[in-house]
């Protein structure tokens, strides 16, 4: 079976193209709606209900649409109908992730996953992000988490690039050097 990201990609690309051409709503509002749709689709009870063979497509569409708190435009409703019709509604979390990546590429931004051994102040995060933006040449949106396993330092992931200055990584390099 094809990987989920491969199946989700055309849906994410089509949705992004539609959202970019939508004059009534901004990309940011579409991003919020797609995120909400993904959240609803990721709930175990919802997943179970949407795969119930006793429900037809129209009932699945109504069930899913009723669970979404945000008002649905005609385009959003059509997208839900398309996903239900193709039995792809449960791919929404993956579609949302790829939609965000496309949005970030379009805006020239990227998500910076920053893991620190200790809590960072807002000033420290700003200084770190400023230096990382120069290094990567992108506007970065930081997501900071504390990971005590790092012992000290930080590990930053931007896309598929990792910058690891943690004590844990340094100890692993020393171990590998000594073992060689």
TrEMBL record:
<dbReference type="GO" id="GO:0005886">
    <property type="term" value="C:plasma membrane"/>
</dbReference>
<dbReference type="Pfam" id="PF00213">
    <property type="entry name" value="OSCP"/>
</dbReference>
<dbReference type="InterPro" id="IPR000711">
    <property type="entry name" value="ATPase_OSCP/dsu"/>
</dbReference>
<keyword id="KW-0472">Membrane</keyword>
<keyword id="KW-0066">ATP synthesis</keyword>
<dbReference type="GO" id="GO:0045259">
    <property type="term" value="C:proton-transporting ATP synthase complex"/>
</dbReference>
<dbReference type="GO" id="GO:0046933">
    <property type="term" value="F:proton-transporting ATP synthase activity, rotational mechanism"/>
</dbReference>
<comment type="function">
    <text>F(1)F(0) ATP synthase produces ATP from ADP in the presence of a proton or sodium gradient. F-type ATPases consist of two structural domains, F(1) containing the extramembraneous catalytic core and F(0) containing the membrane proton channel, linked together by a central stalk and a peripheral stalk. During catalysis, ATP synthesis in the catalytic domain of F(1) is coupled via a rotary mechanism of the central stalk subunits to proton translocation.</text>
</comment>
<comment type="function">
    <text>This protein is part of the stalk that links CF(0) to CF(1). It either transmits conformational changes from CF(0) to CF(1) or is implicated in proton conduction.</text>
</comment>
<protein>
    <recommendedName>
        <fullName>ATP synthase subunit delta</fullName>
    </recommendedName>
</protein>
<keyword id="KW-0406">Ion transport</keyword>
<dbReference type="InterPro" id="IPR026015">
    <property type="entry name" value="ATP_synth_OSCP/delta_N_sf"/>
</dbReference>
<keyword id="KW-0139">CF(1)</keyword>
<comment type="similarity">
    <text>Belongs to the ATPase delta chain family.</text>
</comment>
<keyword id="KW-1003">Cell membrane</keyword>
<keyword id="KW-0813">Transport</keyword>
<keyword id="KW-0375">Hydrogen ion transport</keyword>
């Amino acid at each position: 079976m094809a990987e989920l990201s491969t199946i989700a990609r055309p849906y994410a690309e089509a949705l992004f193209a539609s959202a970019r051409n939508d004059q009534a709503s901004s990309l940011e509002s579409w991003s919020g709606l797609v995120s909400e749709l993904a959240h609803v689709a990721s709930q175990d009870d919802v997943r179970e209900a949407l795969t119930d063979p006793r429900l037809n497509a129209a009932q699945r569409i109504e069930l899913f649409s009723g669970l979404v708190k945000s008002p649905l435009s005609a385009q959003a409703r059509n997208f839900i109908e398309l996903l239900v019709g193709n039995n792809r509604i449960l791919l929404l979390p993956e579609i949302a992730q790829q939609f965000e990546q496309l949005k970030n590429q379009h805006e020239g931004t990227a998500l910076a996953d920053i893991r620190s051994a200790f809590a960072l102040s807002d000033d420290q995060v700003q200084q770190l992000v400023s230096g990382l933006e120069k290094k990567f040449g992108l506007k970065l949106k930081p997501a900071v988490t504390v990971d005590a396993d790092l012992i000290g330092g930080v590990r930053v992931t931007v896309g598929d690039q990792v910058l690891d200055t943690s004590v844990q990584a340094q100890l692993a390099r020393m171990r590998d050097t000594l073992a060689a």
